[in-house]
Amino acid sequence: MMVQISLRGKAYLETARTLFRAAQTKTDSAIAGQLKALADDYERRAEKAWHVDAAKAFARSAATAERELRA
Q: What superkingdom does the record give (predicted)?
């Protein structure tokens, strides 16, 4: 079974990438550090969203298989 990342997860990843790119262009290390911290947070959110979405997909698949076994 292949699980695709959700739109929510994709949005988090895109935001993280944007923040990382912005951080790389900053000469002020304090601002760059804050942007990198935000990017890390959005990467964690994307990973969490992926795990939640994968668990939901697995649960749906298991429920379908259970119904098919009962039929």
A: Bacteria
